[in-house]
Design goal:
Length: about 650
């Protein structure tokens, strides 16, 4: 370790006011959690702690990712591991203080089991989580929980080992599952005859039953989300205690800008905003031009319907994104940076501003940063909600105070960007990964993912999925693994039809292709894109004609209108889709739609118009029979289908 780095890092962390705590309560206070009542719960917990006369700090943190279980509260006492409770209400909040902390008792039906599952039992078993993961009717959790409790009582262990039902264990369709605490050893497909052995061998003798052991590792790898749900996003001391700004201090004291760029090139990180351009190459291209000023911009104009990846990162770990912006600025030689955040994200705006102010107080922003002789300032600019301002040149125009509409390229922003100066624009997820890469090394990041698509990717999984949530997986993970292995499959057991990736600019991946590994190249071959990370699950009751029209209408509404292919082509195509959906279409309409799509792809000025046809083309590619059914069946068929959809009936029965 470089001595200068060590001294600077120690000086920066000196006097941190928050010490390492062995007892605490954390409340998930992201927008989703707050909407579910987390703010009220936080106040209730503070009141309950005070009334009990206990000294338990109540901390606010960002998203845990489990959107299906909001609001979430994580607790830890000195003599037990962290326990995460989901779907917490006022009564459970009171019980957390009186029962969990007061009597050391786990609370039934709300615990989300650890995904870091163990393979050995080195400590005495103190608790057993039980969950029936079967997809069929009839929940057997209560029966097995009582059976385990009775068996424990027979062996005199009722007072020392608790048995409670779990809300979720992250395992699905694997029969009865149990997780032993604190080891995390997890068994699946447990039968009644296994109860006795679990107690006598695993609980009493600490022997692992290998024939029941769930040994599959957690498919998720948290790099971008490493501190979300862990740090208080409004406290820089907490961020520093968990390693924030280590990568920046290391670069500033021990690396040249060229070395930082080389590290990024070694990592293989590609832009997570959707285009997938290599980050290291972008920084190199921006550093090369000679200019009196250069700029860096964080693109936080997340506008895809159903997407909440960037918002969650900004709300949960704003210091990671700010640190990434600092590293980008240092690498290219910029002295000013901007966060372009949509105004609909007030909590993200608040926390990013707090991070900037706190970093300035600690000498991480301003003049002569950490005695390096380098100056840098950061500011926030609010977007007015225009989807097209996610495009680089439109974003630049908006920051400059002009109408947010795209400009022809080249020149690219790396040569002539903000106010005509070289500018590097990276999205939130890209910048959040950068500090980890600089601190750990490019090779460490490149070990995740595939040969051409390195690292991890964050996805917001929504739609007809059992457990909507935020996930971060290595590139190369399949769509099926995400939907069924992490999110529990589809709702109501209606068969899955497809998954939309990339939002309005993406495409539909049909069920037969769900085993496709997620990479930039594979998604492109299927007519979709990575996008910023939205993933919408659709089942057999979703009509692909309506889905295509929905996404196209969004793009038509959000078009800036500057170029004719997007402005006129999108509108004309939407009218054709609506005509087909009403049962008035003709086979010639499909040919015309394809011609318009081709014209928009080749002639539109920016990415919005060029990619707006993607959902339509992928729907036609994989579900043309649905379009033909509307055309051949006419208005009677369309009316019959719309009525069935409104009644929630299975469309296959109607067709």
């Amino acid at each position: 370790m470089n001595r200068n780095f060590a001294q600077t890092w120690e000086t920066l962390r000196h006097g941190i006011t928050i010490a390492q705590e062995d007892t605490w309560i954390r409340v998930g206070m992201d927008s989703g959690g707050i909407a579910a009542g987390a703010g009220r719960l936080c106040e209730r917990l503070v009141t309950e702690v005070a009334a009990a006369g206990r000294q338990i700090p109540v901390r606010r943190v960002g998203s845990y990712g489990y959107a299906f279980a909001d609001p979430l509260v994580e607790v830890k006492s000195a003599d037990s591991p962290p326990t995460l409770y989901g779907r917490v209400d006022d009564a459970l909040a009171a019980a957390i203080v009186s029962e969990h902390f007061g009597r050391g008792r786990l609370l039934d039906g709300h615990i989300i089991g650890s995904r870091r599952r163990g393979t050995v039992i080195n400590e005495p078993v103190t608790g057993i989580l039980v969950k029936d993961t079967s997809l069929d009717d009839g929940d057997k959790t209560g029966f097995f929980k009582d059976s385990l409790a009775a068996e424990l009582a027979e062996h005199g262990l009722a007072d020392s080992v608790q048995t409670v039902g779990a809300l979720d264990l992250g395992i699905y369709d694997e029969g009865l599952a149990v997780q032993l605490l604190p080891s995390g050893v997890t068994y699946t497909n447990v039968l009644s005859r296994d109860i006795s052995r679990i107690v006598t061998e695993s609980v009493k003798e600490r022997t692992v039953l290998n024939h029941l052991l769930w040994a599959q590792p957690d498919p998720q790898e948290r790099i971008v989300l490493r501190n979300c749900g862990i740090i208080d996003p409004e406290c820089i001391d907490d961020a520093l205690r968990h390693g924030s700004y280590e990568g920046f201090v290391r670069a500033l004291t021990a690396q040249t800008p060229e070395q930082v760029i080389d590290t990024m090139k070694t990592s293989g990180l590609r832009g997570r905003g959707g285009a997938g351009f290599p980050t290291g190459l972008k920084w190199e291209l921006t550093r090369q031009p000679v200019a009196d000023r250069k700029f860096v911009i964080c693109n936080a104009d997340e506008g895809d319907p159903g997407a909440f990846m960037d918002r969650s990162v900004l709300e949960g770990d704003p210091h990671a994104v700010l640190e990434g912006l600092l590293l980008a600025a240092y690498a290219i030689g910029a002295a000013k940076g901007y966060f372009y955040i949509r105004a609909e994200y007030p909590l993200a705006v608040k926390r990013v501003q707090m991070a900037i102010d706190q970093a300035r107080q600690r000498g991480l922003i301003g003049d002569n940063i950490l005695g390096s002789g380098w100056d840098f300032e950061a500011a926030i600019r609010l977007g007015a909600g225009a989807f097209v301002c996610g495009e680089e040149t439109a974003l630049i125009a908006s920051i400059e105070g002009r109408r947010g509409s795209p400009e022809p390229r080249p020149p690219y922003p790396s040569v002539q960007g903000l106010w005509g100066k070289p500018t590097s624009i990276n999205n939130v997820e890209t910048l959040a990964a950068v500090p980890w890469i600089v601190a750990k090394g490019g090779e460490a990041y490149a070990r995740h993912g595939t040969e051409k698509s390195k690292g991890t990717k964050v996805f917001a999984v929504t739609g007809k999925v059992r457990h909507a949530q935020l996930v971060e997986v290595p590139m190369g993970t399949t769509v099926r693994q995400i939907i069924f292995g992490i999110c529990g499959g589809v709702q109501d057991e209606v068969p899955i039809k497809g998954v939309q990736t990339g939002g309005p600019s993406g495409g539909i991946i049909p069920e037969p292709h769900l085993d496709t590994p997620i990479t930039y190249e594979n998604l492109s071959e299927l007519g979709s894109i990575m996008g910023s990370g939205g993933m919408l699950v659709m089942n057999e009751n979703d009509c692909m004609v309506d889905v295509a029209a929905f996404y196209l209408k969004f793009c038509v509404d959000e078009s800036c209108g500057k170029c004719a292919p997007c402005r006129a082509g999108g509108y004309q195509m939407l009218q054709l889709l609506l005509k087909i959906a009403k049962g008035k279409g003709t086979p010639e309409d499909l040919a015309l739609i394809r011609r318009i799509c081709q014209a928009m792809q080749y002639a539109s000025l920016c990415g919005l118009g060029q990619t707006a046809p993607n959902p339509v083309l992928s729907a036609l590619r994989f579900f043309e029979h649905e379009f033909l059914a509307y055309i051949e069946g006419g208005m009677p068929y369309a009316r019959k289908l719309k009525k069935a959809m409104a009644e929630g009936r299975n469309l296959k029965d109607v067709v």
